[in-house]
Amino acid sequence: MLDYSLCQQASSTQLWTVVSRTLLFVFSQPLIAVAILVALASLLWGFKRDRPKKQVLSLGLGLLAVYLFTISPLASQLGTRWLVSFLPADVGSQADAIVVLGRGDQQNSIRAEVAGQLWQAQRAPIIFPSGRKDALLMAQLIKQKVSDAVIEGEPCSLTTEENAEFTAALLRPKGVKTIILVTDPPHMKRSLLTFESFGFKVIPYFSPLSDDTGRTKKRFIVAREIIGFWQYKMMGRYSTRPVPPPSVINEEEPALKALKFI
């Protein structure tokens, strides 16, 4: 099995990943989130001047209002509808590979099941899990239903950008052009456009969020993905880019080839 030591330990967007996951945990707990925001607003009492008091109060109340709207059913419904709009429908066509993106323990078992079903339906000859730690776990789950020989992947990526970059580095040189991309609905739009930027033709296939994911957490995931979508757009990550070499995964191993799960 692939050793994590083969992966680069740094990521250009690792800070955003850590911050967003921390916020996801905090703000998916309404009591904790409201307590933090109220505490922020309460700081105004530490100021003696009226003007700073008003500014801090306005900031605290504004953040509270934004949070309450973010976790509201209306915002979640509108955000989800926008995130899945204009995505091509899955018409059952075949592809060169099934690429499965990780999203933590709650989602990995569902995605592994979806990937196995797609392979059994002969939609593609290989299954390619992507994501640090997630890929190895999904590979183990997938191997319970399909042959080891059809599973490849990369357990090095920490972000959606790296999911696409590392997958392209390993699969495009092998002639893989069309992929079935498996991820949850909120994550699909950003993922699809990022993979397309590396030359893939992408067939989106939704894997639902786990039933164990609370309603508030699901709503914050939607908000996070909207922010992530526009962040990627401003960084130019949807523009056409060259296929990176396999060495991009580990600069110290320029001869690194396709990664197989044994």
Automatic annotation (TrEMBL):
The keyword Transmembrane helix applies. InterPro entries: Cell_Envelope_Assoc, DUF218, Rossmann-like_a/b/a_fold. The keyword Transmembrane applies. It comes from the Bacteria. One of its GO terms (cellular component) is plasma membrane. It comes from Phormidesmis priestleyi Ana. GO terms for biological process: Gram-negative-bacterium-type cell wall biogenesis; peptidoglycan metabolic process. The chain crosses the membrane at residues 23-44, 56-75. Keywords: Membrane, Transmembrane, Transmembrane helix. Pfam families: DUF218. Gene3D superfamilies: HUPs (3.40.50.620). Residues 96-228 form the DUF218 domain. This is DUF218 domain-containing protein.
